[in-house]
Write a structure and sequence with these properties.
The structure is a homodimer of 112-residue chains.
Chain A (H helix, E strand, L loop, with lengths): L2 E11 L2 E4 L1 H13 L2 H8 L3 H14 L5 E5 L5 E5 L1 H24 L1 H4 L2
Antiparallel strand pairs in A: 1-2, 3-4
The structure holds a DNA duplex (30 and 30 nucleotides).
InterPro entries (chains A, B): Molybdate_resp_trans_reg (IPR051815), WH-like_DNA-bd_sf (IPR036388), WH_DNA-bd_sf (IPR036390)
Organism (chains A, B): Seonamhaeicola sediminis
Protein name (chains A, B): LysR family transcriptional regulator
Chain lengths: 112, 112
DNA sequence: TTACGTTATATCCATGCAAATATAGCGAAT
DNA sequence: ATTCGCTATATTTGCATGGATATAACGTAA
């Protein structure tokens, strides 16, 4: 009924998106499923889109965020690096803090 | 070269977007030009898009944000209400505060 | 009463983006 | 050797979004 404030934050590295909400979702799904194709299915996005997202993350990050293996037992897979874990944790924390901050700012609008 | 954090915030009213960056730009241009069609031209967007944006703002706001007049001297025009002025000022301030807040949070990522 | 410049709205069309589809390449296991 | 399930890509197809265009409605001023 009343006003709500929403936000979307993301992190860029030399003008490319490194991390955003969608990319974090994808990384978490990879962590859970152990493969990019299963992660894509669980998020109801096409494998192509998932691959493009992951590719852009790994290309713009300082260190690799996932290790992808082709072939081998089970056909391959993808798993998060330690750096990848740290990134998504930090992003989640910042995002949560941002929501709290904005909710408090919203009063300025409600008072009008 | 290093990571940057960016954000986009917006305000919703019963699941409709009330105010965002684009809508604030449009309202400021209306304030400057005195008409919706001139504002659209100055922002290089079609009149149709500008009208849709303004219409959705006025439909989801508690009080009118602009007064639009059809016909009359000069064919008509649009001008901000006092409530409209207050809204864009509050939005700008919140946005600026948000940037400052996020820049400070970014350190958590840089330290990884 | 006619002309004007605007708001307001419908319709058509092109363009781009995303999904679907297809296919190649890989390496371990059998 | 062959199969399997995945990563990695190119190509086509479909759909939605937005732009262009057209036009109605309006009220003041001449």
């Amino acid at each position: 009924m009343s006003y709500k404030i929403k936000s979307r934050i993301w992190i860029e590295s030399n003008n490319n998106v490194l991390l955003g909400e969608g990319r974090v979702h994808l990384l978490k799904a990879i962590q859970k499923t152990g493969s990019l194709s299963k992660a894509a299915k669980s998020l109801n996005i096409s494998y192509k889109k998932a691959w493009q997202l992951l590719d852009s993350v790994n290309k713009s990050a300082k260190k690799p965020v996932t290790i992808n293996s082709i072939g081998g037992k089970g056909g391959g897979g993808a798993e998060l690096t330690e750096y990848g874990h740290s990134l998504i944790n930090a992003f989640d924390e910042i995002n949560k803090n941002c929501w709290a901050f904005l909710d408090q700012q919203l009063d300025k609008i409600k008072q009008l």
